[in-house]
Amino acid sequence: MIAYDEALARMLAAVVPLPGETVKIEQAQGRYLAEPVRAAIDAPRHDVSTMDGYAVRHADAAAGGWQAIVGEAAPGAPFAGSVGRGEAVRIFTGAHVPSGADWVVIQEDAEREGDRVRFGQELGPDRYIRQQGSDFREGDTILAAGAPLVPTALVALAGADRAKVSVARRPRVAMIATGDELVAPGSAAATPYAIPDSGSVGVAAMVAQGGGALAGKARGRDRLEELAALAEAALAGSDLVVVLGGASVGDRDFAKPMFGDLGLELHFSKVAIRPGKPVWFGKVGETCVLGLPGNPGSAMVTARLFLAPLLAALQGGAGKDCVATFPQRLAADLPPSGMRETFTRARLGQDGLSPVSNQDSGAQSPLAASDWLIRRAPDDGARRAGEWVRAMPF
Known about the structure:
By secondary structure, the protein is α+β, with helices and mostly antiparallel strands. The protein folds into 4 domains: about 5-15 and about 170-325, 3-Layer(aba) Sandwich (Molybdenum Cofactor Biosythetic Enzyme, Chain A), CATH 3.40.980; about 20-40 and about 140-170, Alpha-Beta Complex (Molybdopterin biosynthesis moea protein, domain 2); about 50-130, Beta Complex (Molybdopterin biosynthesis moeA protein, domain 3), CATH 2.170.190; about 325-394, MoeA, C-terminal, domain IV (Beta-clip). The chain contains 7 helices and 26 strands. The strands form 7 sheets. The protein has a 6-stranded mixed sheet with strand order 7-4-6-5-9-8. It has a 6-stranded mixed sheet with strand order 16-13-17-21-20-18, sandwiched between helices. Strand 23 and strand 24 (about 350-355) form a beta hairpin. Helix 4 (about 200-210) packs parallel to helix 6 (about 295-315). The chain is elongated and about 95 Å long.
């Protein structure tokens, strides 16, 4: 067995990012940039007012006395002239500051009578002018290649006057669940000893959440010939094959042997973590193959730890960033972690993180109550409520 950090590093080192494609920014949510994006315009394009008020020459306004209002400036409708001595222009938030003016006095500090206005002598330190290019200049790099296109990033792209972007192609993901007992959800009640294939549902949802496109989904009985045929079919036209179950060393565990005649190159076969020791990763040619445990609790934890960063890396993103941990305070006690690095399912509340009561790898209802994973080193001692731990969103 190898440590989690080493396994993650081996997996990410083996990934070759997928080629790019051009999409409209409205279709780019959740994708990763394949190329840097540079601004097509300055932002703002001109000096603009940050408040409603009057554009003036500072020296005139500070001197007091009445000033003639010679025009008005609104966003998209600038004042065509220039502000001269003793003059003011009524201006609205976002409007182009007219030439000749170097200050905006907010309307709360102005006294207006008809077509004239005057101000108090204490104008304050704020000019209320946002300078041209203070956000970015034409040609500036707005986002680098590999940046995730979250909603806030899309705002920046649109503000840079970009309607289309080059993003990595969505990874095509094929899934195979192994086990004689597995049946489609909704049909288990009619079949004695059958178990709903819940793990595939959760992992498929994580594929979609990570930007992947499900290329195929199959269930196979614990028969090597049957599973080998499914493996060959899954490799055709996919960038990643995810196998659930069959990763132990029993007589009916064929997750790795099913790829034996297809040229599987293993990068690791076990990881010293709990839950999820049987997780494994390899490649068949350029196609990645990720093996997850069959128990749904372990499958979802290891999918969070390996599948999420793998999908990001295939799209040119920083896979390691997907599993960054953050300090969180415990709201309940934790027992010692044991000999393996442990990822404890927990719920975040007002007082901090509370571990869910059932950490069994086969437990499913606690998954619905878990939104964080507490990461603990091997042989970490008991922790008390109020102590700080490292955790990642689940």
